[in-house]
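Re: [ENG-882] Designed sequences occasionally contain unexpected residues at chain ends

Forwarding the minimal case from QA. Structure tokens:
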């Protein structure tokens, strides 16, 4: 059993509690204290977290008031990290503090990456020291003062001071050191805080103090993503569909937080804007960012930690779900039974959205947002799929002679034109039996409201559109079809769809007003290109040094892209054959380069070695050295330097 008489003070670091316990019992060494406290003399005390808590609490004397959760929540730095970690990782960290194996604890906290380095020494607030001595008779280490990136005490707005107790030496030589022992030592060092940015440091310290005092539950990445996106959209730094306005965002961020301040708190920006941590946090809120980065991001959006974690779940452009079914024939009419949209698309650069909601009854409708009021959720902008229940209701109302057309449209929440359209789609009789309307089938057909064949075309409509088209052609005999279409769009569309034979006979093209351009004479073009290909190949062959004759090289000389198009070459057989003859293989160009190099050596009066000739002929690559023809050409070329009548003189040759 552990002899325990220590009561932890508010916000006291667990390391400080253990240090006061060790000093009160008068242990001669840190190993002796760890043997009693942890059961293992080799355990190194930790500053930010706690170790072996289950073992410690189980061995405390009866009547103690400590429990594991109280120690973790009130005397370690875990409450600062917990809100920004997934619940599974927070649970794992708590289990590591309970157990005997804490080897992965710092890695799971994200401290191993050292994105924000921890203070080198244990720190304190001078005013807190005075108040603690007056209240408790002794000073102690506050966990709030040991947070990485924090330079001010939020309770007194004073600069944190650095003691002579190095965090690196804890457990090696110093072991457990109380705040009273450290503060009575002669060596004290002060932390230099950039007072020019006092307000920024103070807001950061206030947010950290709130997290320690009130805490927040662990959250997944979607919790932060949805709230950050809502705040970014509210500040005009992101579009409603979630795309970050990168330039505006970086401008606001750099204006709010100077580089000197960011470097001081360990949150300096990357040289490349797209890889810097605020952009990654805004575009993809992933776990692994230090809590100080999250708190700075909240400051950018004019939101404190208390306000942020109190925010309700943001809603989309169409309000919170579930959404109602707007099928009047469905038993769930106007009831919120649709849990998620079927499809959502954004328009006008992400400023407006169109969504499709579908119900289990088969009815699907379209809405345009974002919403401006609560009643808009019961308004639809079009039917995507009607479904069997809706179709049956329309058919029943249509055949009811006691209900007129306006009443049918009202029951279905449609306009009269839309009601007529769906009635025509279901091939219902016109006009509506219960309506006094004189609407005719021809009018509906002209409006495109009824599927029909040519046998059902109203002759009155045909005569009207023919007359309009003919008058337009007579008024301007030089106008083409495009011009007439602009002047008479209704007649143009109707005649093309329902009277195509007459329209073809009475169009400007048919009357010869705009004669067609003669077609291409591919036979003549084929012979011409074949001759040009042969000339281009000869031009390439005469160039020095030799280059391989390819289809691309010939096309570049002639400026004719059709030489590279297989569909075009299919219409040019002679050109295709000329290209086949002109193109060189690797063997052909290798042999030609050998003889070109040989002639140059003869012209300069030099006798090359075999490697020199291979290098000059560009045949030193393995793919070309393996060519039998190239080897044969090199052998013949070397033999030409030993011909009778040639006398060797060192590296030169001369005639005898």
């Amino acid at each position: 059993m552990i002899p325990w008489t220590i009561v932890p003070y508010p916000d006291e670091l667990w390391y400080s509690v253990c240090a006061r316990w060790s000093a009160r019992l008068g242990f001669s060494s840190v190993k002796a204290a760890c043997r009693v406290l942890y059961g293992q003399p080799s355990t190194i005390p930790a500053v930010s977290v706690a170790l072996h808590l289950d073992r410690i609490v189980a061995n405390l004397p009866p009547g103690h008031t400590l429990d594991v959760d109280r120690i973790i929540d009130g005397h370690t730095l875990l409450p600062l990290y917990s809100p920004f970690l997934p619940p599974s990782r927070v649970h794992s960290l708590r289990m590591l503090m309970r157990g005997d194996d804490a080897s992965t604890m710092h890695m799971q906290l994200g401290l191993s990456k050292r994105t924000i380095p921890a203070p080198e020494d244990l720190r304190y607030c001078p005013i807190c020291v005075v108040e603690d001595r007056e209240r408790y008779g002794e000073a102690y280490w506050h966990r709030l003062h040991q947070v990485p990136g924090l330079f001010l005490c939020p309770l007194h707005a004073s600069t944190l001071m650095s003691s002579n107790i190095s965090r690196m030496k804890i457990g090696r030589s110093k072991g457990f050191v109380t705040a009273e022992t450290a503060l009575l030592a002669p060596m004290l060092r002060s932390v230099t805080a950039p007072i020019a940015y006092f307000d920024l440091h103070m807001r950061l310290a206030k947010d950290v103090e709130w997290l320690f005092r009130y805490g927040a539950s662990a959250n997944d990445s979607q919790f932060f993503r949805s709230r950050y996106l809502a705040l970014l959209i509210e500040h005009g730094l992101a579009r409603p569909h979630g795309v970050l306005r990168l330039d505006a965002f970086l401008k606001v961020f750099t204006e709010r937080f100077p580089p000197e301040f960011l470097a001081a708190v360990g949150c300096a920006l990357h040289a490349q804007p797209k890889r810097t941590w605020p952009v990654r946090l805004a575009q993809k809120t992933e776990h692994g960012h230090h809590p100080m980065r999250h708190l700075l991001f909240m400051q950018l959006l004019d939101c404190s930690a208390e306000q942020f974690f109190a925010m309700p779940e943001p809603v989309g452009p169409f309000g919170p779900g579930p959404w109602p079914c707007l099928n009047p024939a469905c038993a769930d009419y106007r009831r919120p039974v649709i849990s998620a949209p079927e499809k959502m698309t954004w328009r006008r650069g992400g400023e407006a959205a169109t969504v499709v909601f579908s119900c289990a009854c088969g009815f699907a409708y379209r809405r345009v947002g974002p919403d401006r009021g609560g009643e808009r959720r019961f308004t639809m902008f079009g039917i995507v799929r009607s479904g069997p229940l809706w179709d049956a209701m329309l058919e029943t109302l249509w055949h009811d002679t006691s209900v007129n057309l306006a009443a049918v449209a009202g029951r279905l929440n449609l306009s009269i034109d839309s009601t007529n359209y769906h009635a025509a789609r279901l091939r219902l009789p016109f006009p509506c039996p219960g309506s006094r309307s004189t609407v005719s089938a021809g009018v509906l057909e002209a409006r495109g409201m009824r599927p029909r064949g040519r046998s059902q075309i109203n002759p009155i409509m045909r005569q009207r559109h023919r007359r309009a088209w003919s008058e337009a052609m007579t008024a301007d005999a030089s106008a083409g079809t495009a011009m007439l279409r602009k002047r008479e769009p209704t007649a143009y569309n109707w005649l093309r769809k329902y009277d195509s034979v007459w329209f073809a006979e009475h169009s400007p093209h048919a009357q010869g007003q705009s004669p067609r351009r003669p077609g291409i004479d591919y036979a003549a073009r084929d012979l011409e290109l074949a001759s040009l290909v042969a000339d281009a190949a000869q031009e390439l062959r005469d160039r020095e040094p030799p280059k391989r004759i390819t289809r691309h090289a010939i096309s570049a000389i002639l400026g004719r892209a059709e030489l590279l198009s297989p569909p075009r070459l299919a219409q040019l057989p002679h050109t295709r054959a000329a290209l086949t003859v002109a193109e060189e293989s690797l063997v052909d160009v290798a042999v030609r380069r050998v003889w070109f190099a040989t002639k140059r050596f003869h012209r300069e009066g030099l006798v090359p070695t075999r490697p020199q000739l291979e290098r000059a002929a560009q045949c030193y690559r393995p793919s070309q050295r393996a060519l039998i023809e190239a080897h044969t050409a090199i052998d013949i070329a070397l033999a030409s330097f030993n011909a009778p009548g040639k006398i060797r003189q060192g590296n030169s040759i001369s005639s005898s």
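QA comment: On inspection the terminal residues look reasonable. The first strand starts at residue 121 and ends at 124. Proposing we downgrade this to a documentation issue.
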